[in-house]
Amino acid sequence: MRFARENKETILKMHRDGNSSYEIAEHFKTYSTKILRALKFLGEPPRDYAEAQKIAMKRGRSKLPNPKGSKLTDKHKLAVSEGRAKAWSEISDEERARLSAIGKEQWQNMTDQERQELRTLAARAVREAARDGSKTERFLRKELTNLGWSVRFHERNLIPDNKLEVDLYVAELRTAIEVDGPSHFLPIWGEESLQKHQKSDATKTGLLLNEDYIVIRVKQMTKSLSQKKMRDVLGTIVETLDKIQTKVPSKANRLIEIEV
Prior knowledge:
Blueprint: H1 2-6, H2 8-16, H3 21-28, H4 32-41, H5 49-58, H6 74-89, H7 93-101, H8 104-108, H9 112-132, H10 135-146, E1 151-155, E2 166-170, E3 175-180, H11 191-210, E4 214-219, H12 227-246, E5 255-259
Parallel strand pairs: 3-4, 4-5
Antiparallel strand pairs: 1-2, 2-3
């Protein structure tokens, strides 16, 4: 990699001095992905989560999650409560109908055997995801880490006084990545269960946005993704993270949805 070789000393010095890939990219007037690839080419190990979070907080790019034992002000409690209620109530009737209809035709066209197979796969996926993350989550975490991003798995305590958990979390950018599998769109366990699931998703999104996080939701509407599809999703997420690094989106545009 010519760029890495020609700028080796500066890249390594800036990175070891605590500069993020974004800050180094600004120095060279290029993109952060190029810096991440250069660091990997030069054999520079990526920062672990704790180190990245510490640097991000020191430089003012990230806020410390709510410490254990700390008390919330009445104002903050009210804001959290309002965010929880607002998230679901603000969804339009059209959007609720769209969410409900996304997989309805696909579900109706399945045979009883195919539906049962999907239920079995979904139940297994839920157990595995709780322990190790879904296949897509594991893939994204591994590949993003290889590209130099510091990614936290099943992160909690992002919302004060709430045990909410996000699938993947990029601390430096205050960005949560949620991977929504077929059970978020298909009535695998009935229409009522699907509605509750979608309401829970909307509430989580609302709470995160209310606390100024950015949310990327990957909508996986099929039971499995091919390697090519997962690579395509990875590329879209990397491109999105690069844009966030370049310019933090406005509050109205901090929910980013990727449908696959």
